[in-house]
Design brief:
33% helix; four-stranded parallel sheet; 156 residues; alpha/beta
């Protein structure tokens, strides 16, 4: 597939040079997917968001899941989804939640597995459960970590 102009070529070369970094999650930088979309061709999603749990360890005033203690993906399902995403040609996975993703005990293994399969992996977390042990296990596999601090209140 050829693209007219130097900009598209520079973007592709930059992406190839820097690997599956932050841009791996951005549709704009996947010209092949944009081309397929424009021409009504099949293409896998660039990034898929996975919410491994609805459980949360905080009680944010605005949140509809505050204090929820039930609702998580089965461990085998979580690990299986990661493999299926890689097989389908998805570029990246964002672990986030309708709860705190790190309350799911199998998430560090899913993050490592996704990275091993070539997916760009990111995490959105409130950071409370990001212990040094968890950091050692997952940070080498993550493209980025987004810490959500909305409504942080030490007295709640």
């Amino acid at each position: 597939m050829e693209f007219v102009g130097g900009v598209a070529r520079k973007v592709i070369m930059s992406f190839a040079k820097h690997g599956k970094g932050y841009l791996a999650h951005r549709t704009l930088y996947h010209i092949d997917r944009l081309y397929a979309w424009k021409h009504d061709l099949y293409f896998p999603p660039v990034t898929v968001e996975v919410n491994p749990t609805a459980i949360c360890n905080q009680r944010c005033g605005y949140c509809y899941v505050a204090g929820r203690t039930k609702g998580k993906m089965d461990d085998a399902l979580l690990l299986g989804v990661v493999g299926q995403l890689a097989d389908a040609g998805v570029n990246g996975v964002v672990f986030q939640g309708s709860g705190e993703p790190l309350t799911h005990k199998a998430l560090p293994d899913a993050i490592a597995r996704a990275s091993e399969l070539g997916l760009a992996v990111s995490l959105t977390t409130n950071g409370v459960l990001l212990t040094p042990e968890i950091q050692d296990k997952i940070l080498p596999h993550l493209t980025y970590v987004k810490i959500s601090s909305v409504d942080s209140d030490p007295y709640r």
